[in-house]
Amino acid sequence: MNSLAASNTAEEARKLMQLLDIQGYSYEPSEELLRNLNRILVNSGGWIMDRRALSATNYEFTIEVELRSILDLYAGIIAAGIELTRANHLALTDLCTCRLHLLGSSELRQVIGLRLEVAFLTQLTLENLLSTGCTIV
Question: How many domains does the chain have?
Answer without folding.
Answer: 1
